[in-house]
Design a protein that fits this description.
The protein is mainly alpha-helical. α1 (about 5-75) packs antiparallel against α3. The radius of gyration is 39 Å and the shape is rod-shaped. The protein contains three helices and no strands. The longest helix is centred in the N-terminal third of the chain and has 70 residues, at about 5-75.
C-alpha cells in the first residue's frame, strides 16, 4: 500500500505539470487580448492630454478675465473736462497755482492713457485666446 500513495502523488504531479502549459497558453491569449486595449488606451491618453490642455487654456483664460475684471473694478474714469473743472476751482480758491494745476492735469491724463492702453492690450490678448479656443 505504501507503493500506491507515491504513484498517486506522481500521477497528480504529472497532471499538474500538464495543466500548467494550458494555463501558459491561456495566459498568452489573455496578454494578446490585452495588447489591443493598450493601443486604444494610447488614443484615450492623447485625448486626455488634449482635454487637459484645453482645461489649462480655459483656466488661464478665466484667470486673465478675472484679472481684467479686477482692474476695471479698481479703476475710476473721469473725463478731462471734469478734471479741468475741479482743478480750475482749486486755482480760483488759491489752493494751487495755475502751473501746478496744468502739471497735475497732464500727469493724470498721462497715467490714465497708460492704464487704458494696458487694459485694452489685455482685452485684445483675451480675445485672441478665446478665438484660438473656438473650433
Amino acid at each position: 500500500m505504501a507503493d500506491e500513495k507515491p504513484k498517486k502523488a506522481a500521477a497528480s504531479k504529472s497532471k499538474k505539470a500538464k495543466a500548467k502549459p494550458k494555463k501558459a497558453a491561456a495566459g498568452k491569449a489573455k496578454k494578446a487580448a490585452k495588447a489591443k486595449p493598450k493601443a486604444a488606451g494610447k488614443k484615450s491618453t492623447a485625448t486626455k492630454a488634449k482635454a487637459a490642455s484645453s482645461k489649462s487654456k480655459s483656466a488661464a483664460l478665466d484667470k486673465s478675465i478675472s484679472q481684467l475684471k479686477d482692474s476695471l473694478e479698481h479703476s475710476v474714469t473721469l473725463s478731462r473736462d471734469r478734471i479741468q473743472e475741479v482743478v480750475d476751482d482749486a486755482v480760483k480758491r488759491g489752493r494751487m497755482t495755475h502751473g501746478d494745476a496744468e502739471k497735475m492735469i497732464g500727469e493724470l491724463l498721462k497715467r490714465g492713457r497708460k492704464q487704458t492702453d494696458a487694459l485694452l492690450s489685455e482685452l485684445e490678448k483675451l480675445v485672441r485666446q478665446a478665438r484660438r479656443k473656438l473650433p
